[in-house]
């Protein structure tokens, strides 16, 4: 079943075509990587999918519902969660408080079903190896730790579709491995994940499919290994066939 359907999606800003006729479907439980050079439209695509920008043309269907005109908050309530490239956590709050904010956003019935909220918060921080920092302000964490906290907060919001914008940016190899494990856990739970990322080995390891954007268009899609070895990808990143 396609949980997300993107049809003829285009966006123009200031007379410039940023996205141009984007078409793709995402099946429930898939992990899909979105890659491409800087300026190719990756983050803009996520801004449109999450409701922060409205497309000039085209439609977005989520769980068979046309959400093209929905606001970001309406999409979040429907089950779309996003981890931002520039950290969406509350730096002046403790780690515990950051997780608690995510839990408070859940419907009342769901919060009650979770049981002891303090234990849920504790378990969430343990899941990402941050238990020892529970009482610290989030702003005191390293970049990698902030990323783990933000992903943990988003996971606890119990979304069906996760949009992860460069989750490994500024993250150590050890923490990159932890993030990969979290995404693998989401996949086991039949959650759906779209990832914008520059780290091709990371994408190759965890994604079912890869979509390549260039100048606002999809130029290639396929299995990670197929895309990685393709002549088209080499030309996009290096400007010519490396054999030339």
Secondary-structure blueprint of this entry?
Elements: E1 2-13, E2 16-27, E3 31-35, H1 42-49, E4 57-62, E5 65-66, H2 72-78, E6 80-83, H3 95-104, H4 108-114, H5 117-127, H6 143-156, E7 161-165, H7 173-188, E8 192-196, H8 200-206, E9 209-214, E10 217-222, H9 224-228, H10 231-238
Helix pairs in contact: 3-5, 3-6, 6-7
Give the biggest beta sheet. Answer: 6 strands, mixed
CATH C-level category: Alpha Beta
Topology-level CATH name:
Rossmann fold
Tally of individual helices: 10
Radius of gyration of CA atoms, rounded to a whole number: 18 Å
Question: What structural class results from the helix and strand content?
Answer: alpha/beta
Number of strands: 10
CATH architecture: 3-Layer(aba) Sandwich
Report on this structure:
The protein is α/β, with parallel strands linked by helices and 244 residues long. The protein has one domain (2-238): P-loop containing nucleotide triphosphate hydrolases (Rossmann fold, 3-Layer(aba) Sandwich), CATH 3.40.50.300. Helices cover 38% and strands 26% of the residues. The strands form two sheets. A six-stranded mixed beta sheet has the order 6-7-8-3-9-10, sandwiched between helices. The chain has a four-stranded antiparallel beta sheet with strand order 2-1-4-5, covered by helices on one side. Strand 4 (57-62) and strand 5 form a beta hairpin. Helix 3 (95-104) crosses helix 5 and helix 6 packs parallel to helix 7.
């Amino acid at each position: 079943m396609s949980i997300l359907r993107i049809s003829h999606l285009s966006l123009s800003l200031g007379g410039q075509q940023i996205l141009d006729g984007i078409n793709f479907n995402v099946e429930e439980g898939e992990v899909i990587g979105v890659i491409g050079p800087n300026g190719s439209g990756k983050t803009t695509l996520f801004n449109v999918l999450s409701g922060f920008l409205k497309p000039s043309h085209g439609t977005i269907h989520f769980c068979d519902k046309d959400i093209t005109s929905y606001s970001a908050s309406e999409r979040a309530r429907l089950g779309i969660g996003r981890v931002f490239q520039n950290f969406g956590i509350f730096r002046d709050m403790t780690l515990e408080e950051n997780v608690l904010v995510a839990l408070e956003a859940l419907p009342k019935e769901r919060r009650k079903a979770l049981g002891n909220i303090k234990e849920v918060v504790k378990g969430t921080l343990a899941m990402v190896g941050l238990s020892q920092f529970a009482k610290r302000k989030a702003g005191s964490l390293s970049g990698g730790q902030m990323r783990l906290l933000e992903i943990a907060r988003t996971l606890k919001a119990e979304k069906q579709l996760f949009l992860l914008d460069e989750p490994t940016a500024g993250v150590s190899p050890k923490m990159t491995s932890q993030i990969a494990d979290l995404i693998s856990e989401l996949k086991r739970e039949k959650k759906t994940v779209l990832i914008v990322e520059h780290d091709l080995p990371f994408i190759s390891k965890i994604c079912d499919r890869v979509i390549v954007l260039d100048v606002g268009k999809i130029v290639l899609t396929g299995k990670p290994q197929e895309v990685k070895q393709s002549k088209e990808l080499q030309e996009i990143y290096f400007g010519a066939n490396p054999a030339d």
